[in-house]
Recover the amino acids of this structure.
C-alpha cells in the first residue's frame, strides 16, 4: 500500500468508494473490500448508505484504529446548527463516535462560507472527526476556505482522471499542504477502451484501469477512491502495488487530458478552473 502522510496522519492512498451502492450492497462490498486489503473507505450523506457502510465495517472485524473513514456533508446542511445536527445523524447511521475525515460535499453560495467553515471547525473540536476538508472546490474557493478555517484543511476531493487536467487545483493544494482525493478516477469506465492505456498496460501486464489508478497514485499528494459493486473488480483495483510507471508512461497518460474531459458538472457546480 502507498500512504499519504498528512501532519503525522498516515492515510492509505487507495480507498474504496461507495457512490451508488445501496445500504445492503455497501455493507457487503465494504466487508469484501476489507478482506481484499482496503483500509480507506469513503461515503457521504447524499449516498444514503452510511448505515450500510457502518454495518460493513462492523462485519469486517477491523479495529477502529485500523481503517480510515471519510463522509461528506450535503450542501443543504451547511447552515450552523443544521451542519452539526447532520453530523450527529451521520455518526448514528455509521454507529461510530467519530469519522477520520469530514468534507463539505459541494460549495453552496446560499450560505456564507464563513458560517459553514466555523460549524465544520466546531464538530472537529467536539471530536466528531479527526480531520476536515472540502470537495469540489475550485482554486478560488480553496484559498477562501483555507483562510477562514482555524483548523488545517486536509483534502479537496474532486473529479480526476486522465481526461481531466487538474494541474491548477493540484498546485493550489500542494501550495497549502493539502491532498487531492480523486473521485471518478477511471472516468466511468472510459479508460477501458483507451488505446494509450491499453498499450501501456500490455507492457506491465496490467489492465487500463490498473494503469490509470497507478498513474494517480504515482502523483505526489494524490489519492483515489474507485467504486466497485464487484468483489472481482475491487480486487483488481487493489492489485496496483507491484509495478511502477515510467516517466514516459506518466507523461503519455497526462497528455490524454482534453478540454471537454469533465464528466461531473451538475447545475449547482461552481465555476471550474478549466471552464472556458
Amino acid at each position: 500500500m502507498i500512504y499519504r502522510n498528512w501532519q503525522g496522519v498516515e492515510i492509505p492512498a487507495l480507498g474504496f468508494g461507495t457512490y451508488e451502492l445501496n445500504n445492503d450492497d455497501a455493507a457487503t462490498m465494504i466487508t469484501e473490500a476489507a478482506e481484499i486489503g482496503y483500509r480507506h473507505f469513503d461515503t457521504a450523506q447524499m449516498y444514503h448508505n452510511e448505515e450500510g457502510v457502518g454495518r460493513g465495517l462492523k462485519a469486517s472485524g477491523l479495529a477502529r484504529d485500523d481503517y480510515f473513514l471519510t463522509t461528506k456533508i450535503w450542501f443543504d446542511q451547511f447552515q450552523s446548527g443544521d451542519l452539526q445536527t447532520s453530523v450527529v445523524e451521520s455518526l448514528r447511521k455509521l454507529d461510530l463516535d467519530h469519522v477520520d475525515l469530514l468534507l463539505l460535499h459541494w460549495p453552496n453560495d446560499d450560505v456564507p462560507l464563513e458560517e459553514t467553515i466555523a460549524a465544520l471547525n466546531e464538530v472537529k473540536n467536539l471530536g466528531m472527526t479527526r480531520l476536515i476538508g472540502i470537495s469540489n472546490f475550485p482554486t478560488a474557493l480553496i484559498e477562501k476556505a483555507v483562510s477562514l478555517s482555524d483548523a488545517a484543511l486536509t483534502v479537496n476531493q474532486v473529479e480526476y482522471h486522465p481526461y481531466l487536467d487538474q494541474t491548477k487545483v493540484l498546485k493550489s493544494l500542494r501550495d497549502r499542504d493539502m491532498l487531492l482525493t480523486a473521485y471518478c478516477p477511471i472516468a466511468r469506465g472510459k479508460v477501458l477502451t483507451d488505446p494509450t492505456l491499453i498499450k501501456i498496460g500490455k507492457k506491465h501486464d496490467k489492465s487500463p484501469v490498473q494503469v490509470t489508478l497507478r498513474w494517480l497514485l504515482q502523483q505526489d499528494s494524490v489519492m483515489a477512491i474507485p467504486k466497485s459493486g464487484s468483489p472481482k473488480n475491487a480486487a483488481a483495483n487493489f492489485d496496483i502495488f507491484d509495478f511502477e510507471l515510467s516517466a514516459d508512461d506518466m507523461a503519455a497518460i497526462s497528455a490524454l487530458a482534453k478540454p471537454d474531459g469533465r464528466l461531473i458538472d451538475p447545475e449547482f457546480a461552481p465555476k471550474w478552473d478549466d471552464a472556458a
Q: What stands out?
A: The chain has ten helices and ten strands. The longest helix spans residues 23-36.
